[in-house]
Fold each of these.
Amino acid sequence: MTPAAPSIAEKIARAHALMARHGPALLADGEVRDLLARYREEVARTRDLMRRLGVVALCARCAERTPGGTCCGEGIEDWYDEYLLLLNLLLETPIPEESALPGHCRFLGPAGCRLTARHDFCVNYLCHRVPESLAPAAHARLQAQNGAELFLAWRLERLVRERLGWRPG
């Protein structure tokens, strides 16, 4: 029998334990600090572009009309692991212990995701309404920006995992 996957509460507890044990050393590491700063800037660029293109407003309207049936539906939080949650703690982003909007992802708040470091699905997925609402050049710009954010997220998570003793392969 396959062991049950850890609950989101267990993964959050693991992230806090990793932060308590390794956070000071990770934050003292110049390479980690540099990538954290660059990643924070890239996330801000993505969110600003989404706001300017009207994607934030479009998603908010959809979430209001389709409780629990949106991209940020209940259970999405289960896709997160302790390392991605640890990145949020390193970025000084609190991890919500409870859902602000019942029937949705526990990390979704009234103004969008309450996390800085988001799951790759949450960054990259665009339902059919988004490209339909954008000019092709704007859609391409958004996809390129999402890719830039995801690339830095991948580099940062890989570096943090390596600093914690993880080896690929």
Note: The chain has one domain: 8-164.
Amino acid sequence: MAKASKARQSGYVAESQLEAEVARLRNALADAERQKAELQTQVEDLRGEVSKMSGQLSSPGGEPDERDKQRLLAHLRSEAYVELFASPIAGVGVRAFRQIPEGVDPFPICNPHMAAKEKFCTCSHAELRALPDGVMDKVKSFFAALTMDDGWTPMRDEDGEIIYGVLTSGMNNLNLSWYLNHSEDPNVAFKDAEEDGGYNSFVTRRRIEAGEELTTDYRELGKEFYALVSGT
């Protein structure tokens, strides 16, 4: 009798363990089903976002299609405003070849999904001094020194050298806005990029008439850049 009772007790313990394992697996399966449902919902949400984007950006990084062409034609009809010319202020400047409304970007990028994002390398003044004669001055005339949080004081490296942000693709990839000249009474204001790697832009302070030069205030770009025209 003792042996039979012990066997029944051993069988009871094993059966309890199996039942506990079954319950654990059922709970794990229920959790997995919930996670699966949540993931399916996320997938459907992402598909919806992709569908919306594909309607707006038809060929990101690929060949232009008819929608890209239509956006380009619309851009040329209503957003092409400026040209380069020999400026009476200094060197090459930017002027309007037709009227530009107040409060618009005179240099809008068409089909931005097909354009490379602007990336900058940080270069010290010492590194620029090592460039061939004349190149440093040209670089400094286009690329402002990086500034501290006050937007005025130039940043310096550990050796005390001023640091510049130079377009990674070089000077031959500059759009027309880089040729804006300085004015104490500018008709265009500078606007920082809204996201990392995005384009800096400008906005007209008032209506600009055809034939009028577009200018900005170099003080908005920091002390070092302003010194190019102020001599201070």
Note: The chain has one domain: 66-230.
Amino acid sequence: MFDSIAPAYDFMNRAMTFGIDRLWRRRAVKMMRDVAHSDVLDIATGTGDLAIMMAKTMTDAKITGLDLSEGMIEIGRRKVAESRLDDRISFQTGDCLALPFADNSFDCITCAYGVRNFENLAAGYKEMRRVLRPGGLLVIIELSTPPSALVKPFYDLYTRYLIPAVGRMVSKDTRAYSYLPESIAAVPQRERMCQIMSEAGLTDCRYLPLTFGTCTIYTASTK
């Protein structure tokens, strides 16, 4: 599915969020500035938007982008080359539930809009915990359902009807953007997400709602 939507993925991200997704990423990157993170793993990197933003902001970081979709990674490599960041960002295909890295390999792990697609969220967090070094930082950006009763009806209308309709026109994939509202509704959110992270062995789990709660940034660390 993700290979088929790769050519339209960046456009749809901007269109669906009216460009706010860039602000969400920028807010997440700011949270990483106080941590020594020379080795960063960006899981579900997609076309590399977050990896590129981190490389431009965190000038000492070496970033590995991991994704199951070769189509996404191919676009990411082109974007990195155009940004002249080839020496700082590398890509490889891999499974988030069986990360192809040794224990304690990274100072920081990020994942933007990806954990809701994990087949086993708890197992995914345990793998992240395994490859994070002691004192490492985990930063998750994920779409979420707004808790406000005033906002939710408009949000439901937008995600259930408008986004799938535009997605079908732009990406020509009838599954990808119809699946989006279902995946957002199904993923654990806020306190429950932090509980799963804690049960996986991560510590100091916190969350920050953004834009009426339509996006949430989660952070956690390792001892």
Note: The two ends are 37 Å apart (CA to CA).
